[in-house]
## 1
Amino acid sequence: MSNNNNSNMKNSPNLFQNSFRPGQHHQGIPKVRSKNAKTTVFRIWSYLKKQRQGLWIVIIATALTSCFMLLAPYLIGKIIDLYIVPQKYKGAILLSFVLLVVYLLGSASTWLQQYVASSVSQNTVRDMRQDLFEKYQSLPIPFFDQKTHGELMSRTTNDLENVSITLNQIVVQLISSIFILVGSVAMMLSLSVWMTLITLLTVPLITFITKKITKYTRHYFSEQQKSLGEVNGFVQESISGLRVTKVFGRETKSIEEFKEMNERLRVVGLKALSISGSMGPIMNAMRNLSFVIIAVVGGVFAYQQVITIGVIVSFLNYSSQFSQPLNQLANQYNLLQSAIAGAERVFEILDLKSETFEETNQIVDKKLKGEVIFDHVQFGYTQNVSVLKELSFQASPGQMIALVGPTGAGKTTIINLLTRFYDIQSGRILIDGEEINKYDKHFLRKQIGLVLQDAYVFSGTIRDNIRYGRLDASDKEVENAARLANADTFIRKLPKGYDTHLNAEGSNLSQGQKQLLTIARAVLANPSILILDEATSSVDTRTEFHIQEAMKTLMNGRTSFVIAHRLSTIREADAILVINDGQIIEKGSHEELLKQNGFYSNLYNTQLAEGHVS
């Protein structure tokens, strides 16, 4: 398609069982239940395991690091018992040098594991972000009607960034924890079984406290991510509509609304961080308690000559190593919970039902002539309210059909059905004698050119924007399309001509210039059916003349549907359909409708009196 329309899309009951309107909650989208932490972690693992080679390097490097960490306390104990206590300082110096080498090798392996783990986490989040973006492209239009752009951006950036940071730290931490915990227990058992059991006395208490805290923090972190998405959405909307806000003097009200949302975010964030933040101090208290027990009991055993002083020192080191992974995980607990909540929000989107594209018996290569028939079409955005009521009309190849009527009459809905953004409830739509659902959606939409009232251009050069609908077009074809659309003259006056880079949403072009670019885009795409939706309603008279001339070139030889409020733009239409309340109440040429002295005639005379037509 030559252009896209997001702003006018509504909701289809054929895509979602219970449709909804913008601003309503999840009434139409299939509800996805909140994932528990275990399920979410397994889904993250399904992405993580794709980085097998990197994970194996991390595992090997972590194993080496753990071995060096476990060896160091053992060597310290031996230095004390074998050399310092007997005062054999030469041997102590030699073994201390070995200890230094162990620390250096441990540092090197730690650097390697961190470097590779960063690569693993970034690759994993890259895949998740790619899947999320691809999901956005496959979701039906109704989904975007009730989600703000800022909220979706929050899922793509903030939520996935939380996952990225957590993976970067937790992957190494989890693997290291397994080696350290198992290795520390093994080394302690080799030194003293009784001291090992005493050291592990605090483990059941730590496990109990962790479960209790987990029960509360996950809920608050999920609420925090939700509130953050709402804040992002509000900020994005406020910045986009800042001119309107200032014109109507709504700055104070907007500030108050943001203050309320910001306060909600602060409250849930404070609860999440305060509860999860208690993990670190609790774990430190457990570690200190373990140190006290080891020192007291170890001192008694040493006095009774059951163990040596070197063994006590080794146990204090191993106890620290044993509790260190638990302490680190506790200190990162808030990050872990935030990442799980963010991942849940990403998976919630990935679990939504994509727009269906039939794969069998679909027409994918037919050259369309452009005959369009609506045969008793019935459609509504909700089950109980019909927008189109038994609507029927025919457009022959090459005809220009104008759609006229009051706001909400069903004009845009006809276009939405023709492009299959929504599917009809009853009746038939035929294109060149074939029912519309027999055409592959991708193929069908490529045969339809769409020029909207709100001309949308993308970041990039003017040349890229015109080529958007046909990527294989040559520079010469792009420039020829611009000439046919009356856009070539103003383009060549720009500093870099066709290579001029457009700002965000084309803010360095006027509305009329952007409209001419969208027409050039449609010319280059060479569609069989053309849709013009209020393409000249927001430009001055002189620019309207240039756009109308470009549209005449574009419509030549194509079946065209024109939605217009300015009736002066449709005088030459082959047929004008006057639509009201989902039904065609008048039909004919401009002159025929004026003679009927009905709805169209009254509307035309009103615009004539107001100076809107000439």
## 2
Amino acid sequence: MKTSIATVSISGDLPEKLAAIAKAGFDGVEIFENDFLAFDGSPADVGRMVRDHGLEITLFQPFRDFEGMPEPHRTRTFDRAERKFDIMQQLGTELVLVCSNVSPVSLGGIDRAAADFYELGERAAKRGLRVGYEALAWGRHIFDHRDAWEIVRRADHANIGLILDSFHTLARKIDVNSIRSIPKEKIFIVQLADAPLIDMDLLYWSRHFRNMPGEGDLPVTAFTSAIAGTGYDGYFSLEIFNDQFRGGSAKAIAADGYRSLITLGDRVRRDPMAAGLTVAAMPDRAQVKRVSFVEFSVDDTDAADLIDLLRTLGFRKTAQHRSKQVSVFSQGEIRLLINTERAGFTDASYAVHGPSAYAMALVVEDAKEAMARAVKLTAEQFSQPVGSGELEIPAVRGVGGGLIYLLDEKTELGRIWDTDFVAGAVDEENQPAHLLTIDHIAQTVAYEQMLTWLLFYTAIFETQKTPMVDIIDPAGVVRSQVIENTAGTLRVTLNGAENRRTVAGHFIAETFGAGIQHLAFSTDDIFATVKALKRNGFKPLHISPNYYDDIEARYGLDAKLSEQLKAENILYDRDEHGEFFQLYSGTYGDGFFLEIVERRGYRGYGAANAIFRIAALRKQIRPEGMPVI
């Protein structure tokens, strides 16, 4: 699979873009005309710069409003084409994109357009160049790739071919199987883009909301499978128009683009109807069996406060690391590691972020294969020295530079608790609180990073994303999207903060970066859990009494249950599958908190309750310096 990306897809000036594209691993680059025009050097300079980076110029684009023009406009279009050809020859590229005409003076007619392209093909052939025709979804007469193909077919010229763009086909819901009958040699290049499903003007949607394959909602995999079914073996190129990407890091966006293409290729490779695509094999997406542990980086003072909080929740110290200052606190299948080491990565993380949940470990089917897939998809591998006889656990960098460890049960990694830790006697006076598993992990990131991490999780692990929802904070909106697997053994909520006045934004600002902001633990009896918590001295987050009058009326709750929920500060929600109960702690450190949930068939995350939880948290955080709205 040959990979390419258009310069319009990322931010920066042309040299910055080319450096980022090359570093990400692409084979080629589309030169968007505006990037070339804004550059001070000559076309030959641009060509040399591209080749010095080890890239090929796959396409020069766009050439607009060509076919079907009346005179004197028609003559002028051919003059313009000749000037484009001059530039292409100096750049050192042989393919130009002609997009379907949108001019109000253009004339319709398949044969008229085919005649124009035949003449253009004759001119291109004299220079050893090729012309690709693309149907814009908003074209005046041609807005369907099937009509564009008919024009190319009738032009019947070796130097005239078709350019297929996933957005233009999928935005109009055109049957992708119509592509399978197009001869592969007439497809000159394929452009790919995804997008969220939004009901809006096609041009505006395309120019502002495209994103990388796998980041949106369009069936890009089916489109690419249809292309591969023709036997096409040319470039697959990203053409992404996105306001957020234009203002982001060129290196990060280019890396996301490369990861998205490799992931897409892997998905298409597994489609028996797409036998023509040549893609390097990689392991399957990793199936996550459970979250093995979450690890905190703290100093001795912070550790004491955190341990006090955990003990009120019924956690007890059950093990100690053999050579490091790492204690294990457990309950049910939950393990929380408290790391007070003042050396290595843990200490560096504490120096930057302060007390934080900086690492988590996932139990997968095969840790070695999961790591191989992650590295293939450009995840940053992490390792550090380990003590004699201790396990070297494979890990990659995750959100906020934190760590994701990979464990399995088929190798020595499954013996981590016997190998690296010494079990300790449990003698605490606190009572277990019926907490069973980690229900979900909530990670807060800057809004512009959400697509990066959504792609990271869905590319490496066997997960899917749910629709994005808006969480209303009194100081602004926080975007929230869930990545989860079918079994419910991995659930991650990504919360994107756009300003520091929100609770999520405050967390990022105070901890100097994204990370885990809260952990949710499951119980099968929230009311039994509350009784145990009371005995342990746990203090729940106080919820306004007015909330309970509302939910009693909204859901028709029994008055006795409503009063019980109010007395215990338990939040309630319901969906078509069942009921949901939530109980929160106050904050620890700079905005971290804990949650206890009981699911009675319910599949969501209590989004309707978020505004009330946030209001309660703001009251607690504000005295510590949170901006007043």
